[in-house]
Write a structure and sequence with these properties.
Structural class: alpha/beta
Strand content: 5-15%
Shape: globular
Length: about 325
């Protein structure tokens, strides 16, 4: 009698222990799966965010701050359905762009062709300064004054919406003899748009610029440097050349002026296209960086030309 009770007790104890063990294993598995899922969601969310230094001012290009965009730019995982080539990098990335074309990353090492330019090497010490995202009511006039002080010509890639907010500033750029390029109407990522959307962005920006100075741009800089086959196709159709860059100054990230200047001086070569911005949300380092770097580049024998002069030169 006592033996049977003991055996029953042992079996019950062993069964309870096994159940507890399996419950523990299941709980550990569920917790591990939940942790992995959380990490995956967090990584995807941070990778998909567009880096940007712009504010929500009129014509601004988003409200995300460089907490990181732009872009000189920090590496970032691709957004769903779009290319995130903030600066030209080697290789290509396949992406679904709303059923249009495959988005691509602009390869910085590739030679210039008759459509896309990052630089144009020459033996004349010619280089091109370019400014994106303007016009801005205070920074653009300040930059124009500095350029005039040193006798430097540049190319301004304007956002159509900003041109409409500050037409007199856009007109002053043209009147000063600088070149103006198309930077889309509202800084949309062109590689994520349909053909109709890309055409509208380019055309509306062109019309905004033409309305202030009877000036028709023929250079296109896609926001963030993002390209797609659709962008290429329409650029040819609309008689635009696509202009990217060889040196990113990271002024959009509020890099200190001294570091911006040193970056340029350490890397500049004849034929470079240098990326800067005349529209930055606040505390732009660009004017001071120009005051530091322009006299040194001139002293080294560099000659500043517009982007069109650079790429059309032999």
């Amino acid at each position: 009698m006592g033996g049977r009770i003991t055996r029953r007790y042992v079996r019950r104890t062993r069964t309870g222990t096994e159940r507890a063990l399996w419950l523990t294993i299941a709980l550990v598995f569920l917790l591990t799966a939940a942790l992995l899922l959380w990490l995956l969601v967090r990584t995807y969310a941070s990778g998909g965010a567009r880096l940007s230094d712009q504010t929500n001012e009129p014509g601004g290009q988003g409200g995300e701050a460089v907490t990181g965009q732009y872009a000189g730019l920090l590496p970032v995982l691709p957004d769903p359905g779009a290319d995130t080539a903030l600066i030209p990098t080697d290789g290509e990335v396949s992406a679904d762009t709303d059923g249009t074309q495959e988005a691509e990353t602009a390869p910085a090492a590739r030679d210039d062709d008759d459509l896309v330019y990052y630089r144009h090497r020459n033996d004349r010490m010619d280089i091109a300064l370019s400014f994106d995202d303007g016009p801005h009511p205070s920074y653009t006039p300040e930059i124009l004054s500095i350029l005039d002080e040193y006798g430097v010509t540049a190319t301004f890639f304007m956002v159509g919406e900003n041109v409409q907010y500050w037409p007199e500033v856009a007109e002053s750029v043209i009147a000063a003899g600088h070149e103006v390029g198309n930077h889309s109407y509202d800084h949309a990522r062109l590689s994520s748009l349909t053909e109709t959307g890309v055409r509208e962005q380019i055309s509306r920006c062109e019309e905004a610029i033409a309305s202030v100075g009877e000036y028709r741009p023929h250079l296109l800089r896609p926001p963030e440097g993002c390209l797609s086959q659709t962008v290429r196709k329409l650029s040819r159709e609309l008689d635009y050349r696509i202009i990217l860059w060889d040196i990113d100054t990271r002024d959009w990230a509020h890099t200190p002026p001294g570091k911006i200047a040193q970056n340029i001086l350490d890397n500049v070569q004849a034929g470079d296209i240098i990326l800067m911005h005349d529209y930055i949300g606040h505390d732009s380092p660009t004017p001071e960086a120009l005051r530091l770097v322009l006299p040194e580049l001139l002293a080294r024998g560099y000659r500043f030309v517009t982007v069109s002069e650079l790429i059309d030169g032999n």
